[in-house]
């Protein structure tokens, strides 16, 4: 049986054509400039763009399945919680969609909220949560249906600088358990270094480079990430070169 995730994607109306192989348990960082096609890749995997090509997970073809029938969890920049539901009900929602009973869904939601550090906030509505708390709830919700693939689309970009490191550490912990294949889209090198095993770079809808993180960040082409994201110097506090 073929393990891992094999992508052969084509979205001609966005000029995106991407082939990628991600091993079981691997975390891939998808990098590239604005408009390169990173979100499009995630949307096809999640089933939000129908007819976007082949998404083959451990030998099973996911193309043609609606988003709710895919073993895929998506965590976006914004938590996108249902505003009228409590944190517990938000996390229970994907379980209820999969016909898990109400009591069991709520019990599991409570466990997940505890695991992401907001076990005491289950009764609150999203408007009563801080940005970091809301993103923790969103992580719990993304994990609720026990996805085999986790898609993280700029998961820390909307958080303030004080909240981001704790959420990054939480995601690192989640991904280290190796239960998921994961794809992380980020413009922040700190995320890539903390979370990813391997990087792939998209430009104009095509994969132009890919490699192991150690080769890319520590090797002779160590400007690689900075060149692709344009943020390297800023992230690690290096002032721009003095033109004089
Ligand atoms: N809803 C849409 N309809 C049509 N074209 C779109 C749509 N969303 C994105 N595109 C186009 O598809 C291409 C890829 O966009 P995409 O959002 O996937 O890039 P990205 O790498 O995620 O960019 P960013 O880093 O700015 O989020 C771009 O040319 C973009 O203009």
UniProtKB/TrEMBL annotation:
All residue ranges annotated as the ABC transporter domain in the record: 2-229
Please indicate which superkingdom the organism of origin belongs to. Answer: Bacteria
Q: Which Gene3D superfamilies match?
A: P-loop containing nucleotide triphosphate hydrolases
Presence of keyword Transcription regulation: no
Q: Which GO terms describe its molecular function?
A: ATP binding
Taken from the record, one Pfam family name reads: ABC_tran
Q: Which SMART domains match?
A: AAA
| The name this protein goes by in its record | ATP-binding cassette domain-containing protein
Upper lineage is: Bacteria, Bacillati, Actinomycetota, Actinomycetes, Mycobacteriales
